[in-house]
Amino acid sequence: MIQIITYDVSKYSKYSDKIYKISNLGEIQALDDFEICVIDLTSENLWNYNGQDPTSVNCYKDLLTIKEAIINSNIARIIIVFPQNKKISYNQTYDWNGSSKHYYYQNSIQLKDNKDNLISIISKNLLHLEKIGISFEKTKTILVSKSIDADFNFIRYNEEEFEALTFSKNSNKVTTINKDKIYITTLNILEDNENLQLFIHNYCKNEQQKEDVPGWIQNVKFYNDNQLEEDKNNNNEKIQKLKDKNIELQEQLNKNLEYKSILYTNGDELVKVVLEILDEILEYDSSEFVDEKKEDFLIKKEDITFVGEIKGLSSAVKNENVSQLDVHVQSYLDDLQQKGTEEKVKGLLVINHQRNKPIEERQEVHEHQIKLATRNESLIIETKTLLRLYEKYKLGKVTKEECKKIFEDNIGLLEI
């Protein structure tokens, strides 16, 4: 027999009492009196809280009672059914209707916008959900031949403890996870009896408890056991190799994302990545550069020294940005004169302007700033252009020497 524990008993009025025992959330029967116990968290009224913030539910004591029962259960399989995207109402108050009080909730929030609290409420009061995270995405999962909806899916869980059981059609999102006799699902299996029966018969079969499998039975080989074990081990090796490859690919994607950050960052974060790119394409090591709050970088090659300023701006490029670079160049030339040495010096302004806008919405560098840089014989390099040059270098379309030549020969605005 199956026990359904719910906040909304009336919802199951048509369910057969020969198969189901419908129990109110606060009046549960002993879990181990049943083969399967379904804990229904789908009722919208369950997700009400009188407090000022949506961080708990009024029936949390009932959930704690069920939590204790789960801990003490040894036989029953437990199915916990997550809610769909309902709203949680909170911050109860009242007003007077004649001589009586009328209670109501001042605020509400959809569960999709309160996911962390949803997990926290379940974890504190019902079942500890270590490292579990959910995402709101409407999906459909096929059970046998029937399509079942889900508003949430599991994006994070402890894979050493939980096993993924059901996956959404096409998108392959995890909609059910299992740990021993506990099944946690975001599928809307309580929409009707057929959905529930399909889930039970396919994933936690409603059958008499089987006798424990003795350890020695593993030494008894039957039919194609050896071949199946060999195939399984081979598949596990392939899976591990694919997992390792995916880790490597993700690391590369993360590195690419770091390079692309020069399109939206400023300050030290921007300077760090720009210098990493410049060091690679100019074959230099800026780690020993001492920042004296003058220029942002000083790259000394055999035949030329690049004096550089790196800027991240919310606004467009201004004359003062170009002029500031020239101040650094002139200051460096003064230092050379005092030392009695000569170098060919070139000013580079690497600038991420209008950084809060998408690239296609940014204004072009104005003619005034280009003319000023041309007059100063310096070069403005937009970070989008630097990234494009770096991409060409990574693809082998330009060499380090050609990159140096591009910076050395061009003035005004660099265009590639």
Order of helices and strands: EEEEHEEEHEEEEEHHHEEHEHEHHE
Q: Count every helix, treating DSSP H or I runs of 4 or more residues as helices.
A: 9
Widest sheet, order of strands:
2-1-3-5-12-11-10
Number of strands: 17
What average pLDDT do the residues reach? 92
Radius of gyration: 33 Å
Content-based structural category: alpha/beta
Question: For the terminal residues, how far apart are their CA atoms?
Answer: 73 Å
Shape: elongated
Blueprint (SSEs and pairs):
Blueprint: E1 2-6, E2 20-24, E3 36-40, E4 48-49, H1 60-72, E5 77-81, E6 87-97, E7 100-110, H2 115-125, E8 133-143, E9 146-156, E10 163-167, E11 174-179, E12 182-185, H3 193-203, H4 225-260, H5 267-281, E13 297-300, E14 305-312, H6 319-339, E15 345-352, H7 367-375, E16 379-382, H8 383-394, H9 400-409, E17 412-413
Parallel strand pairs: 1-2, 1-3, 3-5, 4-6, 5-12, 14-15, 15-16, 16-17
Antiparallel strand pairs: 6-7, 8-9, 10-11, 11-12, 13-14
Molecular structure report:
It is a single chain. By secondary structure, the protein is of the alpha/beta class. The protein has three domains: 2-203, 3-Layer(aba) Sandwich (Rossmann fold), CATH 3.40.50; 215-259; 264-413, Restriction Endonuclease. Helix content is 33%, strand content 26%. It contains nine helices and 17 strands. It has helices at residues 60-72, 115-125, 193-203, 225-260, 267-281, 319-339, 367-375, 383-394, 400-409; strands at 2-6, 20-24, 36-40, 48-49, 77-81, 87-97, 100-110, 133-143, 146-156, 163-167, 174-179, 182-185, 297-300, 305-312, 345-352, 379-382, 412-413. The strands form four sheets. The protein has a seven-stranded mixed β-sheet, with no helix packed on it. A hairpin with a 2-residue loop joins strand 11 (174-179) and strand 12 (182-185). The radius of gyration is 33 Å and the shape is elongated. The N and C termini lie far apart (73 Å).
